[in-house]
Amino acid sequence: MERAQTSLNSDPEPRGRWSFWRNLSGFWLLGLCNNFAYVVMLSAAHDILHQQESHNSTSPRPLGGGGGGGGGGNGSNGNSSLYDCNPVSTAAVLLADILPTLVIKAVAPFFIHKFPYGCRVLTCVATATASFLLVSFSSTVGMSILGVIFASMSSGLGELSFLSLTVFFDGSVLGGWGSGTGGAGVIGAFLYSAFTQAGLSPRTTLLIMLVVPVVMTISYYFLLVFPPAFSQWQCMEEGPVRNNQERRPLMEEEEEKEAAEDEEKPDERFLEPLTFPDKVTVIRGLVKFIVPLGLVYFAEYFINQGLLELLFFPASFLSHAEQYRWYQTLYQIGVFVSRSSLFCVKIRRVWIMSVLQCVNAVLLCVAVQFHFLPNVFTVFVIIFYEGLLGGAAYINTFHFISKETGAREREFAMAAASVGDSLGIALSSPLSFFVHNYFCSR
């Protein structure tokens, strides 16, 4: 047992700085690749739906039609709406993109240990590849939505597996993983916007993105330096080491001193697993974190998938599809910046960001109704600010959960609270559908 503990949790120095940087960069790339398909599918939502409509329409899409934030004109999709609406709201793409992830987060932790990590990663690669191919060559809305579902499955399973995998490595790989997932938002949305703006079709752009599952495969199987005792293709049987030492609670970098003190207390390293009543008690204590986080994501994804498609300015040099893509890109930049701000500022009162995000949602909903925003650049600023709020709420929520929960409960608390953002996103979809149908029927 002691030999396994030493090999699985050893400091990177004995294995060399080269191994340390390989693992750090490997987890950064895994984080990037894992969230890439999810981000691209949300950025491509407008094009995914318009692509199907184009196949069923005999008239070309006018470039100057429609009206949203600026009002006026017939929709460029050939409907009589003032808002240049797709026949199916982009909220449909959001729903297909979040529900599988939500189900996996809620159910998989109870049985995922029965599947080896090597098999899990192959599943992630296969489903991500299938998602890009299905959406690229789809001829119906249903086929496109199926592709989005595969992207969601890959992202959900990957997040669950790679976060668990970090406990077998030096603690610094957690920072690499987090940075990579934040970079996925910016790089994924930016590359999709840039490629399509440069004249590539959405189909060609998505086919180029097939390099992402390849990079994930190389990063996991060839870049990472696994500990000698790590079992790649066999199930890791549950036991004292796996339950308590290998699956030690994840800590922030500023808690290194506290972690070092814990290492000097062997009696505290082997903690009894939580019972079901213990978990219920922990969840009750997490409500004060989960509710504000869920509300932030409810408001911001109602904005992103319910309102942004309706905020179209026909006088702008950007087409409707281009405006929507850059809305998503600026949002992701805001999220990335604020998720990287923990070392600069910490905000304990997450509910403040919930209130501010709800104000944003009300403001933009009124703007869709009355068209008072002067130009698309005003919306750009609001959307960047929206991303800042969402990213700050996320990172501060989990920072203070890790600081305010005990060592015995911390791992479960971090996992249980992760459902907050996914639940908020899922609940925003019905409201997004309703708002879309209300405005597009006018």
Automatic annotation (TrEMBL):
Bilayer topology: Multi-pass membrane protein
Transmembrane region(s): 20-41, 91-112, 124-153, 173-192, 204-223, 282-303, 350-370, 376-400
One GO cellular component term noted in the UniProt record for this chain: endomembrane system
Disordered: region residues: 244-267
Subcellular location: Endomembrane system; Lysosome membrane
Pfam families: CLN3 (PF02487)
Lipoprotein found in the keyword field: no
UniProtKB keywords: Lysosome, Membrane, Transmembrane, Transmembrane helix, Transport
Bias (Acidic residues) ranges: 252-265
GO BP terms, alphabetized: lysosome organization; regulation of intracellular pH
Entry similarity comment: Belongs to the battenin family.
PANTHER family recorded: BATTENIN (PTHR10981:SF0)
Protein's name according to its UniProt entry: Battenin
Organism phylogeny: Eukaryota, Metazoa, Chordata, Craniata, Vertebrata
